[in-house]
Amino acid sequence: xxxxxxxxxxxxxxxxxxxxxxxxxxxxxxxxxxxxxxxxxxxxxxxxxxxxxxxxxxxxxxxxxxxxxxxxxxxxxxxxxxxxxxxxxxxxxxxxxxxxxxxxxxxxxxxxxxxxxxxxxxxxxxxxxxxxxxxxxxxxxxxxxxxxxxxxxxxxxxxxxxxxxxxxxxxxxxxxxxxxxxxxxxxxxxxxxxxxxxxxxxxxxxxxxxxxxxxxxxxxxxxxxxxxxxxxxxxxxxxxxxxxxxxxxxxxxxxxxxxxxxxxxxxxxxxxxxxxxxxxxxxxxxxxxxxxxxxxxxxxxxxxxxxxxxxxxxxxxxxxxxxxxxxxxxxxxxxxxxxxxxxxxxxxxxxxxxxxxxxxxxxxxxxxxxxxxxxxxxxxxxxxxxxxxxxxxxxxxxxxxxxxxxxxxxxxxxxxxxxxxxxxxxxxxxxxxxxxxxxxxxxxxxxxxxxxxxxxxxxxxxxxxxxxxxxxxxxxxxxxxxxxxxxxxxxxxxxxxxxxxxxxxxxxxxxxxxxxxxxxxxxxxxxxxxxxxxxxxxxxxxxxxxxxxxxxxxxxxxxxxxxxxxxxxxxxxxxxxxxxxxxxxxxxxxxxxxxxxxxxxxxxxxxxxxxxxxxxxxxxxxxxxxxxxxxxxxxxxxxxxxxx
Length: 644
What we know:
This protein is an alpha+beta fold. The chain has helices spanning 6-30, 33-48, 57-73, 87-106, 110-125, 134-151, 158-197, 257-260, 346-359, 366-380, 395-402, 408-421, 473-479, 489-510, 512-520, 523-550, 558-575, 585-596, 598-616, 623-639, and strands spanning 212-214, 218-220, 228-233, 240-245, 247-248, 252-254, 263-264, 274-281, 288-289, 295-299, 304-306, 310-312, 320-326, 386-388, 426-432, 437-438, 443-447, 451-459, 464-468.
């Protein structure tokens, strides 16, 4: 029989008030009133009329699916929310949480309902421009406190109880406010510490190689951040090519239109010794995809090859990519370049040619000249991000004559310009030099600090461009703080865990649907599903077999065990009565009669009669009827005055 007394109705509405407040907060934060308002009204009406739905795991999953579908549909109805997740993931997730909290509230599973409601609140608050909705957050807090005050019997405890509750509220809100302010002020530091713990760096928005590289006489370049950009598995390439710069005017490197507008096709036949690499882009790197030299195919993205054998793609972040290319990182053969690859301003050529002739006097071939200059810079220079090339003549001439400290861009520019001055075709390439690798995973983590530049020289005897790197690596690692002790076994484990979590997080953040589709098609995923289903079926088989034979005479009927445990939990929570180890049900009932009166004890006795009928006399088990009996007892205990 439904209890529609005003006091009982108010109590049930109190129980679901946190869910109603969470839906209101979500509606304000995301503009979802068209869905949330009718759901709130319907939930309030159903609960007020003491109607309910039967709670089961299957129905819970169904509620989550329905909520996800509604959240997805709303992406086309109203403006998607702007939060920490992409709208394609954020909207369905909030819809699922809303559906789960409403279903649990209808099923009187208050703990679960409140949990899902709190998760919905936390996601709704992570929306930019949420200041106008703080009053709804206050409503959530007040509703939870009101339910707590009602259920604890505080309103019947007199002035001292109210005073104590006031002190509790003061400490709660004061401590919470102090904690929130502290977290807001220290959020950046906390996130940075978390990334450092997993060998990461402060998160950012991504990095993209500029279309022009400028050389300055004086420059103070900040060091690259520790932010991870890429994860490479299946090998450790020496370099990753991103941009090719083939035009130089003495102060600026750019990519010629002829190179930028040329679309290339992989050469045929394919390379004799190929290598497959797996790459995950953790942070946006622009439209240019870093790839090892000789990469001939990219699977997992709509990528195309352009002049200079570089790759450009879309939606790269978060996608697992498979790269196939030459194991030796050799570029494909191509026709000899024109005079543009030896072009220099005449004034700069006049300065650099005597220096180049002196440095390569004993070198007869272009390869020998390139090797001589590479060794000259590597062995005789120091690496520094603080560049000062002020002096007589151009900056590159000062660098070569006086051996001043610089970084990779200047060393590569000087070497390429020196080669051009003696009619050797050369260009500069920008990309990354992968750093540390993890032995457990066989993976390398590429960070923003690993950005690098080097030289590619066209060698006629090979018919292709060949990479040369003039950067002094020893002093580079020292200047950038990369000289560290090798990681031990524990350090390798933490690094591996960090790499796995980053790959997972990047996929869910940037391309959640693609990652979910990949999981759904994974044999491992379906293996786990089958194992879980078999385990669940086995539990039900073991539980139902003996019960069917015993016809409810024992205690192995899980429905009886669950409803009896709920009965004892109600007595403990509402009446503070905990059965002693040797106490019988009748003795516990007697204590309840003394503590809360005859009317409450009569409800408990009625429940025990149904329970004994099913357990000891073989009667039919009616879980709905017995659960309703516990609900009536729960409602009576909430309203009964202690000692009445």
